[in-house]
Amino acid sequence: MTSTARLPDGFGVRIDPRVRAYSDGRVLIGGSPTRMLKLAPAAAAMIGDGYVKVVDSQTAVVARRLLDSGVGNPRPTALPATSDVTVVIPVKNNPAGLERLLAAVEGLTVIVVDDGSDVPLSAPARDSLRVLRHERSRGPAAARNTGLRAATTPFVAFLDSDVVPRKGWLEVMLGHFSDPAVALVAPRVVALEPDRGALGRYEHARSSLDLGRREAAVKSGSPVAYVPSAAIIVRRDVLTATGGFDETMHVAEDVDLCWRLQEAGWRLRYEPVAHVAHDHRVGFRKWFTRKAFYGTGAAPLASRHRGSVPTMSMSGSMLFACVAAASRTRLGAVGAVASLSVTMLRLRRMFAELDQPTRIAAVLTAQSFAGGLWQVASALCRHYWPITFVAAVVSPRVRRAVLGFAVAEGLWDWYGHREDGGLDPLRYVFYKRLDDIAYGAGLWWGAVVARDAAALAPRIQG
User: Fold this and answer.
1) 59, 47, 49: which is closest to 8 by C-alpha?
2) 58-92: per-residue pLDDT in tens?
3) Where is the Glycosyltransferase 2-like domain (predicted)?
4) Antiparallel, parallel or unpaired: β 51-53 and 109-115
């Protein structure tokens, strides 16, 4: 159904700037995960300077292929009217946040769902605003579904009561729906007040809700594997047909929704040009508890979507190379070099028809190795930290290695998220490690409660 949906005339696709073109543009290497896309000479000619505009069925096919491979990003030229959108706000015991949000979405059709607040919430009287109430709290998923059932417009924007959309957010996101295969679009979630102490500055840079500056397709197993339901826009009929949010889930229900839509053949987009500000929890206890709560969501997700919540994801040979190198022994170094050499030779054969196949293979192998080392370090400090901690207590050798990993991974993460006026590296690494401890504690607790270790398993590819 969606896999064959034709892009409309005028729709554009721009090649991602990180993609590399070879053989006169007939071979593109990029995307996440990295892949090689081969194009016919006629298709390569359509792309020209890195942009293809849909003008007929042939350009529509090429544009769709670029989007689905992850090497191209959409540049829509038309958008639905804002009158086609209903804003649904699930809220419980947050009248101040609701008042602030209602002021930001004035002029739009709004449905507020009071999910059993201790004191029933009220809202300003206006024709475009309705307030529905659950007499007892049923959770945010149920509140969103109640609003979904009450909406009649083609699109529904879900906004939590602790967010404030920035100017232009809606128009930027709506443009993506000119692609009939797109079912969900999410903005970048930034901090409402970024400078409230060290923890607030860390959360500004590394919030679990902020998925970064790069636009992306939302796909399981990719850098943007899901988007948070704090702020999303969906096609109402698609979400209704999919069953809405899973009301049995009180955490990670947004991740589950993203993956169910993906499994049904729909496309999802992350649009960081659109900003929605979030009132982050920056009191330490609330912050730590929330991070642990997020970790508990991995077990139910792993149960519903087997293999989609890995602690690490890489080939067996790359995992061997990373672990061997991490051993910091002469034998480990030899094993790592041997494994990487085999990987590079295999890639060289794959790229034999291109110019400089050895160089391309070497660069991709080095990138994969660096990414693998980062995954191993991250998993040791985050997903497996209880095991890592015990091993470090028992073995001085392991302790030195773990300390090195913890500092290096934290600094690498700081470098990728640094901003002018942001947190210094030392305090950033400190909070990053606490962030990981909280998430890891929730992850293990969730696995124990569910009696299912699937969320603790890596994904080893052939």
Assistant:
1) 59
2) 999 999 999 999 999 999 988 889 999 999 999 99
3) 86-238
4) unpaired
Amino acid at 302: A
- Verdict on whether the full-model pTM lies above 0.70: yes
Per the structure block, which two tokens stand in for 55? 């003008």
Calculate the alpha carbon distances from 233 to 159, 170, 177, 199, 366 in Å.
9, 9, 10, 30, 38
Q: Looking at the chain, how many residues does it have?
A: 462
| Domains, in order of start, for the chain | 12-75 (no CATH), 82-282 (3.90.550.10), 313-461 (no CATH)
Kindly give, in sequence order, each residue whose CB lies less than 8 Å from that of residue 13, ignoring residues fewer than 6 positions away.
Answer: 51, 52, 54, 63, 66, 67, 72, 73, 74, 75
Predicted confidence (pLDDT) at residue 3 exceeds the cutoff of 70: no
> Strand 72-75 to strand 12-15: parallel, antiparallel, or no bridges (unpaired)?
antiparallel
| Rounded to 5°, angle at Cα 293 from 403 and 170 | 105
Look at residue 422 and tell me whether its pLDDT is greater than 90.
no
Q: Where are the alpha helices (DSSP H) in 2-72?
A: 41-47, 57-69
Mean pLDDT of 139-167: 98
Cα dihedral across residues 442, 304, 413, 379: positive or negative = positive
How far is Cα 54 from Cα 185, in angstroms, rounded to an integer?
21
Instruction: State residue 195's pLDDT score.
Output: 67
- How far, in Å, CA of 139 to CA of 151, rounded? 19
Residue recorded with tokens 């554009």: 12
Q: Which residue from 380, 274, 270 is spatially nearest to 32, judged by alpha carbons?
A: 270
Question: Which residues lie across from 276 on neighbouring strands?
Answer: 165, 189
Q: 180 forms bridges with which residues in the sheet?
A: none
365 vs 358: CA distance, rounded Å: 10
Report which of 118, 107, 203 is spatially closest to residue 157, judged by C-alpha positions. 107
Closest CA to 156 of 115, 122, 110, 104: 110
Residue with tokens 């709290």, as numbered in its chain? 137
Mean pLDDT of 361-375: 94
pLDDT value of position 4: 65
Instruction: Summarize pLDDT for 23-64 with one digit per residue, the tens.
Output: 888 889 988 778 888 899 999 999 988 999 999 999 999 999
> Over the stretch 233-282, which tens digit does the pLDDT of each residue have?
999 999 999 999 999 999 999 999 999 999 999 999 999 999 999 998 78
Distances (CA, A) of 354 to 29, 66, 294, 330, 350: 11, 20, 45, 35, 9
Is 401:457 a contact under the CB 8 Å cutoff? no
Are 46 and 52 a contacting pair, CB within 8 Å? yes
